[in-house]
Amino acid sequence: MTINRLKALSDSYGADLLRWPADERRDAEALLRVSADAQAILASAAETDALFDAMSRAEHAALWTEAEEAAAVARLRAGVSGHIARDGVARGQRRRWPGLVSLNHGFAVVQANLGWLGLATSGGIAVAGGFLIGAISAPSGISEGVLSLLQTSPLHVLPF
Amino acid sequence: MTGPLTYRDATDEALAGWSGKGDRRAFDEIVTRHGPFALRVAARVIPDRLIAEDITQEAMLRAWSQIARFDPARAQFRTWLYRIIVNLCIDHRRRIQPGQLPEDYDAPDPSDSAEDKLATTERNKVLLAALHQLPARQRAAMTLVYDEGLSGAEAGRTLGLSAKAIERLLARARAFLRDTIQRQT
Questions:
Q1: GO terms for biological process (chain B) (predicted)?
Q2: How far apart, in whole angstroms, are the C-alpha atoms of residue A81 and residue B145?
């Protein structure tokens, strides 16, 4: 390892070699054993690390305590499971495309109502068929207007 | 779920597979397992805890909606999930004003004297202001490597960058923070 590479790694990962890429750690340790320049570079990085430690402690105070984090995780679980159950966020659907979700819901509504649609259609066909049979079997004397489609007497013989 | 494993014992990849088939309890275990990480990262990248919680929830719902497409042959589940979370945090952070401080950033140590508390508060203000001025990607890289202990390579996979790119982000972040703090103290 060169001094330049060691400097680059310390500029990125600091003085704690455990953060350094594992495949470069051994070479760095070997260089640090023999090079005063390398040791000075690491000492400088350790000073910056101390600043970051203070920063990390300051930030930690602004984050959740252990109890607050547990409560936040509980809220997260409840929120996620609630949304999944309530909105039916299906796998493969993109939540940023609500139109697609609405379209899917629309198809579901049509599917759910197909039974009623079929029933209504069958009823309509039956009524129309009744009018047709009435027209075919109506007595010849009453042949004008809508009334001619009404059956005026019991049907004795069907023509088919 | 089938087999002798409980959800808690199952690997991330197994949970992801079950979740991909619609197993909500398996996904709940994923949320339980990775929620603390997700919340911490979000809270570090976004300086408002309530917004951080909302973003984390959005990230988890996005993970649920896409989990059937997760391919364990291409990535570790943890990396895949963390990428969704971190990228969503970065996207949000880019849309908000930088430099906003959380209202309760200076929670004091009750053992400190009044003067110590004031000094600590002022110093924390400077430190946190510097942290929150970092660009989102640099902040995310620092969080992943320094706070969460990921290697540079892992952080790179999470952010969709090379290990070299992570090194550059970290170096720029360290230089910026060091210079900012030294200028202000």
A1: DNA-templated transcription initiation
A2: 30
Q: Given B62, B127, B166, which is nearest A55 (Cβ)?
A: B127
Distance CA A85, CA A90 (A): 10
Q: How many domains does chain A have?
A: 3
Q: Does any domain span residue A160?
A: no
State the residue range of the domain holding B28: 1-96
Write down the pTM of the prediction.
Answer: 0.64
Residue A154 in any domain: the answer is no
Report the domain count for chain B: 1
Q: Which helix (H) or strand (E) holds A87?
A: helix A66-87
Q: Rounded distance, CA B75 to CA B163, Å?
A: 16
**Which structural domain range is residue A54 located in?**
3-63
Judged by CB atoms closer than 8 Å, whether chains meet at B61 and A91 is answered as no
ipTM, interface predicted TM-score of the complex:
0.76
List the CATH number of the domain containing B13: 1.10.1740.10
How far apart are the C-alpha atoms of B136 and B47, rounded to whole Å? 11
User: Of chain B residues 24-63, which have a CB less than 8 A from chain A?
Assistant: 24, 27-28, 31-32, 35-36, 38-40, 43-44, 47, 49, 53, 56-57, 60-62
Instruction: Pick the residue from chain A with its C-alpha nearest to B64.
Output: A91
pLDDT tens per residue across span B111-160 = 555 556 556 667 667 777 888 888 889 999 998 998 888 899 999 999 99
User: Which range, of A12-16, A86-90, B98-102, averages the lowest pLDDT?
Assistant: B98-102
Residue B61 lies in a domain: yes
Give CA–CA dist A78/A81, Å, rounded. 5
